[in-house]
Amino acid sequence: MKKLFAVLGATVLFASAAHATKTTIEYVPTEGDTVTVQYDDSTMTSKNVTSGNEGTYTYDEETATVCGTGAEGAEVCATFENPGTEVGHETPFTTNDGRSGTAKITAVEE
């Protein structure tokens, strides 16, 4: 699960915040460990705060879906129920492999 969120740029979901360049998201899955990821919308890169793993991501605003490449090369996508931009915003998410949980914005840096 930790590798999954290292590549998910869920932030793009939140990266639409005006002038925000880095957004930190805490993922709380219904099963598994909580993972915190920082996303940089100016470089479209993500970093797992705990492990230090980095990756790139894309985001489709129409579907509120963010995608990245998993540890073994498979595409991993998450769809957010209610995208937001403010610190403290929470939204449910589901992934293309059937996982789900809550994503919460914990920091936004300009």
Could you explain the architecture of this structure?
- By secondary structure, the chain is mainly beta.
- The chain has helices spanning 2-7, 10-15; strands at 22-29, 35-40, 45-48, 54-56, 58-60, 65-69, 75-80, 90-95, 100-109.
- It has a nine-stranded antiparallel sheet.
- The longest helix has 6 residues, at 2-7.
- The model has no long low-confidence stretch (mean pLDDT 80).
Report a brief summary of the structure.
The protein has 110 residues and is mostly beta strands.
- The order of strands across the largest sheet is 4-3-2-1-9-8-7-6-5
Q: Name the helix and strand elements from N-terminus to C-terminus, one letter apiece.
A: HHEEEEEEEEE
CA-atom Rg in angstroms:
12 Å
Low-confidence stretches: none
List the helices and strands and how they pair.
Layout: H1 2-7, H2 10-15, E1 22-29, E2 35-40, E3 45-48, E4 54-56, E5 58-60, E6 65-69, E7 75-80, E8 90-95, E9 100-109
Antiparallel strand pairs: 1-2, 1-9, 2-3, 3-4, 5-6, 6-7, 7-8, 8-9
Structure keywords:
110 residues; 9 strands
